[in-house]
Design a protein that fits this description.
This protein is an alpha+beta fold. The strands form ten sheets. Strands 31-34-36-35-37-38-39-40 form an eight-stranded mixed beta sheet, with helices on both faces. Strands 5, 6, 7, 8 and 9 form a five-stranded antiparallel beta sheet that branches. A hairpin with a 3-residue loop joins strand 20 and strand 21. Helix 2 crosses helix 13 and helix 7 packs across helix 8.
Length: 660
């Protein structure tokens, strides 16, 4: 395998003009639809090996390489013929100097992602071992003899227990119990031992990840969040702390001048760190807060504004080391200037201003660190920092497929909507300084997901087709705190739709686009948002492209797989609503008399999230109107096309539709 750096070439290409290619052939589309060829780059605890996943034609290969020789020593690949044809390798994590844990996913619709199977495997660095050590059916205390207590369910690795050579710590959530457990598992034979019983309805635990050994028993400091299934959908949690293995005591967030909403990030010997919202407004600023465990008081540490907080890192003394967040740019604030990793981060951030620079992994002694550099126009590349040599060297490029393309950069664009709420988002021009027609990209979800800063193949395909892209984070989007998310509840077809349109209008008024052609585009909720945009703003949009969309809110609540559970039905009632008149007024199929623009509808026949029946009903209803429409149903596809030939066909139809 011969790899070469593409970072400099891509950076230089940013200064070249982006041509208005009106079409992309099948080979070009394939490059954009599956462009990130190397992901999950990490380093072993000893610093001897690097590991990564190589993606080629939708199939993942896990590769371990000797860092000194850069030659492969072991690899695993699924997705071929037989029982593993629908599986992919995922979720890699070093558990010892020589053992790498990984999981598998089952290929699903692209709008759903790839579903975790709940299996854990161990791969030895030299390839001499590759076996499954955990399934959701569980392991016994004496696993080889299948005797003793059976621990079953879905498991996550909480700690690699670096001082316990043959054990790791698992968080096990069982589907037949509301009380998860922390348990140890022997890597050699899968034997299980109870470590700590957690409170009922525990969702997540903090503190266990820093544990290095279980030899001293379960006398450790832990923080947990608990929530019923119904409240979990609504992001409502309670928090409990156990000091030194003692009783669980409630932890309330009561910092003066703040709302009561907060999210933990970590617990150490001295402090609990988290993020909190300053007030109850949708645009509330996010603050880094900490709880002094000795004084039992909350403290306000840092105001990052109306932004998305990604990471809080502390040093060995428990104090802030660095904070990573995105507002109008990707930022890392450094507080511990003595940390060697922070020093190299600071150097690279100054050298590559405007790019995202992140730490991806370090050896236990921190002498070797994997760093990544990328942006919305430059796919990530990975570098090795050697503290002893004080050098940075190129390791591997995230993609080789796009080096010949001139790729645009996204620009932060926010405006204040007609209700006084700031709406953040990203604008990626087809060509900088040139007014081009616009695609309004509406993300799915809609609650939880959001349009993040970074490389998006969708944006770049539209750029290559000659269209600029506006990606708004309308009210209801995740990433900006619960207040902003809740501001979209029960406004799926009203206020949220208006945020998209008003943002596009603001771009037009700023002279950044050719407003003679504005098209809405999206999948899942984004498909619904597209169809509803043509209903609510018929004189503004010139077309709409709907992928796996929703057309009737009442039918969606009844038929979606989300509604198959009581908690799912309760969630949809809270975020969509229950009033029949409101649901009908916000359902595109009930308001086709308002639509003027042409519409392209594409849907998989096996879609259960936004059921295929809804798309059939929409097309049937369109036949009785004068609306200009096209449609394509993809056989055996689910919530978003998975097969590459169908994804290519989908985008060829998009390209042709935009050229009409």
């Amino acid at each position: 395998m011969q790899l070469k750096g593409t970072f400099l070439a891509l950076v230089l290409s940013l200064f070249a003009a982006v041509g208005h290619a009106k079409t992309l052939d099948d080979a070009e589309l394939r490059r954009f639809l599956d462009p990130i060829q190397y992901t999950s780059v990490d380093i072993s605890p000893s610093g001897k090996y690097i590991s990564f996943i190589r993606r080629d034609d939708e199939k993942n290969t896990l590769i371990i390489m000797d860092l000194a020789t850069m030659k492969p020593t072991a690899s695993v690949k699924y997705g071929e013929k037989g029982k593993t044809s629908k599986l992919n390798v995922c979720c890699i994590q070093w558990v010892t100097d020589e053992l790498l844990a990984y999981g598998t996913t089952r290929k699903m619709g692209t709008l759903e992602g790839e579903g975790r199977q709940g299996n854990h495997y161990l791969l030895k660095a030299d390839g001499s071992r590759n076996d499954r050590v955990w399934t959701p059916l569980g392991n016994y205390e004496n696993n080889s003899a299948r005797r003793g207590k059976l621990y079953k369910g879905f498991a996550e690795i909480e700690s690699v227990l670096e001082d316990d050579e043959d054990q790791i710590l698992l968080f096990v959530w069982s589907w037949d119990s509301n009380r998860p457990n922390l348990v140890t598992m022997k890597l050699s034979n899968g034997d299980m031992s109870a470590f700590r019983r957690l409170p009922e309805n525990t969702v997540r635990v903090w503190g266990a990840s820093g544990l290095k050994t279980t030899k001293d028993g379960s006398n450790v400091d832990l923080l947990v969040s608990t929530s019923t299934r119904e409240d979990r959908f609504m992001d409502k949690y309670s928090f409990f702390v156990s000091d030194d293995g003692g009783d669980w005591t409630p932890l309330a967030f009561d910092l003066a001048g703040f709302s009561d909403t907060w999210t933990p990030h970590e617990i150490n010997d001295r402090f609990i760190f988290g993020e909190a919202l300053k007030d109850d407004s949708p645009n509330s600023s996010t603050h880094v807060v900490r709880y002094d465990r000795e004084k039992k008081i909350w403290e306000d540490m840092l105001d990052i504004g109306f932004a998305t907080l990604y990471e809080i890192v502390t040093n060995d003394d428990g104090e802030l080391s660095r904070v990573n967040f995105v507002d109008s740019d990707s930022r890392t604030l450094i507080f511990d200037n003595s940390d060697p990793t922070n020093k190299i981060l600071d150097y690279l951030m100054k050298s590559y201003e405007g790019f995202q620079v992140d730490v991806r992994g370090s050896s236990t002694d921190t002498n070797k660190t994997i760093l990544s550099i990328g942006s919305s126009g430059v796919p990530r590349e990975y570098f090795l920092y050697d503290a002893e040599k004080k050098s940075v060297s190129f390791l591997i490029g995230a993609t080789e497929a796009l080096v010949d393309y001139q790729l645009s950069e996204a620009e932060y664009f926010s405006y204040v909507n007609s209700e006084g709420v700031e709406i953040p988002g990203w604008f990626q021009p087809a060509e900088k300084g040139v007014k081009s027609p616009l695609v309004v990209y509406i993300h799915g979800g809609p609650h939880g997901p959001f349009n993040e800063y970074g490389f998006s193949f969708i944006y770049h395909i539209f750029n290559q087709l000659g269209y600029s892209v506006y990606a708004p984070n309308f009210r209801g989007s995740g990433g900006f705190g619960l207040n902003f998310q809740e501001a979209g509840y029960k406004r799926w077809g009203t206020g949220m739709i208006d945020d998209m349109q008003e943002g596009a209008q603001a771009l037009a008024e700023a002279g950044l686009i050719d407003s003679s052609m504005i098209c809405a585009f999206g999948g899942s909720y984004g498909g619904y948002g597209t169809a509803q945009s043509l209903v609510r703003h018929p004189d503004f949009y010139d077309c709409g492209i709907v992928i796996a969309g929703v057309f009737d809110l009442e039918e969606q609540i009844k038929r979606s797989d989300t509604g198959g559970l009581y908690s799912g039905r309760a969630y949809m009632a809270n975020v969509i609503g229950t009033d029949p008149a409101e649901l009908q007024s916000q359902s595109p199929i009930k308001n086709l008399d308002k639509v003027k623009a042409p519409m392209l509808i594409m849907h998989g026949t096996k879609d259960k999230r936004t059921p295929f029946k809804g798309a059939e009903q929409m097309v049937e209803a369109l036949k009785g109107t004068d609306i200009d429409y096209e449609y394509k149903f993809y056989d055996k596809e689910g919530h978003g096309n998975r097969k590459m030939e169908n994804r290519i066909d989908e985008w060829q139809r998009v390209s042709t539709f935009l050229q009409r």
